[in-house]
Design a protein that fits this description.
The protein has 23 helices and two strands. By secondary structure, the chain is mainly alpha-helical. Helix 8 packs parallel to helix 10, helix 10 runs antiparallel to helix 16 and helix 18 runs antiparallel to helix 21. The longest helix is centred in the middle third of the chain and has 30 residues. About 5% of the residues have low confidence.
């Protein structure tokens, strides 16, 4: 799966990721997921009412959360990128008609819509979140393949797509996954531009960076180190002996910055026009007009909820069993020590990753910790996952070459298993839980409760057999990645050690999963479990 040309071989990996993303449909209508429905309502308002305001949609479909209000008009309190992309997707679906996949997910015709709510959520998730997420995994794979062996690079991309919180946030109708995808696309375009000196790549870098800001304001953090690379020396290809291209000259750098600005301008101008239309000022975001007084209090602290750094917030966002990034994506923990071997391999990349991780650590340490809400891990730093992967892969290679590759493989398997179980059962995790996997997900799974899947809905059946076409490729993919992470360099002629290393990796993953049950303190959440059970048993209605 190497190479830059578009072919079936190059599409195989992103198609696999897309199928694994799209097979499950975790959706509980009665929860009225505010982060998703506020975006859906605005997408519908744009298409059906030719309006940015949600007032007509609220009157027709009922109240939702995550709103701002200005002069009696309601809007999502988020950046509008997901709504804009969702409106385009919804218009396409309405024009196509006749889609049968989710025709019985809700009562058809209940509200006279051409697209029922559950069907709209599915298609918007597919086009706005899943497709960009799968594309981002492929772009990251290509960038990794310039530094690492192709199989190892593909393993890193697999872990990014399926073993980090990129998975759930590429399947929810939220901004975090698409934002990460836009930043990865910007990163890829910057690398292409540094190699080819082509102005169109700089323009694409500016455009995708601007889209990231249109999707989520805080993505501007990731763009600063990325765009500072415009004058840096490019890296050599993995295994190549040639010299890297020289740093950009003054004239080339000025042209690159101009191209970046030209690409950046349209989405940022669209954001300013949206703010002007909705809130009367191009610099007023929705967080200034929040409806929920609790959110208002949180976001009043510091700048939009970002205040003085706190070690508690940093530790919680990285290590807490409920919200910690390394709890949900343990492979990424290798990214911290992995900066050292990455520095010896590719200094510009190591500097970029270190800068990104430092900025996101500072952000999550400064953000109001209570404001994460119902989430699978620290959703506001989903983008950081992409920048953890290169140093984590460098650390994995260092371990592998010393016969300890099973450690990296076990961490990767642990993340894939926990996230697969959570998405397959119930990724809506109430914020009061202190260990949601063992306090909610595992008990629900023991009762046979789970998210619907598209095959079961298409056939109008509820059977575990409809999960097999999803589970089989997932297991094969995870095992293949663990083999590549465990195999020593050049071990293809002596593969006898690899099966033993894979067994050790599986045992490590199982041990980590079992050890996770000891975390989170006392379990006082029977009432929460009964609530979620009733929602899943009742089909969410």
């Amino acid at each position: 799966m190497s190479g830059g040309r578009l072919s079936f071989k190059s599409l195989a990996f992103p198609l696999l990721v897309l199928v694994l993303y799209a097979w499950l449909f975790p959706w509980i209508p009665a929860l009225r997921s505010p982060n998703e429905l506020s975006r859906l309502y605005q997408a519908r308002a744009i298409v059906e009412d030719r309006s940015l305001s949600l007032n007509s949609q609220l009157a027709r479909h009922g109240p939702v959360g995550d709103l701002s209000v200005k002069d009696g008009r309601y809007y999502p309190n988020k950046a509008p990128g997901v709504s804009f992309l969702g409106a385009a997707a919804l218009a396409a679906v309405r024009a196509a008609r006749g889609f049968p996949v989710l025709s019985r997910a809700v009562d058809e015709g209940r509200d006279g819509d051409a697209v029922p709510e559950a069907a709209a959520v599915f298609w918007l998730r597919l086009f706005v979140c899943m497709l960009p997420g799968a594309a981002a995994a492929e772009l990251l794979r290509r960038m990794l393949a310039r530094r690492f062996e192709p199989a190892l690079a593909t393993s890193g991309a697999i872990v990014f797509a399926l073993g980090t919180i990129m998975w759930p946030y590429s399947t929810f109708l939220m901004s975090h996954g698409p934002t990460a995808a836009s930043v990865v696309a910007c990163w890829w375009a910057v690398e292409k531009a540094r190699v080819t000196r082509g102005w169109r790549w700089w323009t694409l870098a500016g455009f995708t960076g601007g889209w990231a800001v249109l999707l989520e304001y805080t993505s501007a953090l990731a763009l600063i180190p990325l765009l500072l690379l415009s004058g840096c020396r490019s890296h050599p290809r993995h295994g190549g002996g040639g010299r890297a291209p020289a740093p950009a000259k003054g004239g080339e750098l000025q042209a690159a910055l101009l191209a970046i600005a030209l690409g950046f301008l349209p989405p940022v101008l669209a954001l300013a026009l949206y703010h002007q239309a909705a809130f009367g000022n191009p610099f007023h975001a929705g967080y200034r007009y929040l409806v929920n007084p609790v959110f208002t209090e949180w976001h009043a602290r510091g700048f939009m909820g970002v205040g003085a750094p706190s070690l508690r917030a940093l530790a919680g966002s990285l290590l807490d069993p409920a919200r910690g990034l390394f709890s949900w994506s343990p492979f990424l923990a290798l990214g911290v020590p992995g900066l050292v071997p990455l520095w010896h391999r590719d200094r510009p990349l190591a500097l970029l990753c270190a800068a990104e991780l430092g900025l996101y650590a500072l952000f999550t340490a400064s953000f109001t910790y209570q404001a994460w809400g119902w989430s699978v891990g620290p959703r506001h730093i989903t983008t950081a996952c992409a920048f953890f992967v290169p140093p984590a892969l460098a650390a994995a290679e260092w371990l592998r070459d010393r016969g300890l590759g099973f450690v990296a493989a076990g961490l990767a398997l642990s993340g894939v298993a926990v996230l697969a179980l959570t998405v397959a059962v119930c990724p809506y995790l109430p914020d009061e839980l202190t260990n949601p996997v063992w306090q909610l997900v595992v008990p629900l799974a023991r009762q046979g409760l789970r998210s619907p899947d598209v095959l079961g809905m298409a056939l109008h059946v509820s059977s575990g057999f409809t999960l097999l076409p999803w589970l089989a490729p997932l297991l094969v993919t995870a095992v293949w990645a663990s083999i590549q992470l465990s195999r020593r360099r050049g071990e293809t002629s002596r593969p006898r050690r690899t099966p033993f290393a894979v067994v050790l990796a599986v045992l490590l993953a199982v041990g980590l999963f079992a050890a996770r049950s000891w975390l989170g303190g006392a379990d006082h959440f029977e009432r929460t479990r009964r609530l979620m059970e009733s929602r899943l048993v009742g089909g969410g209605r």
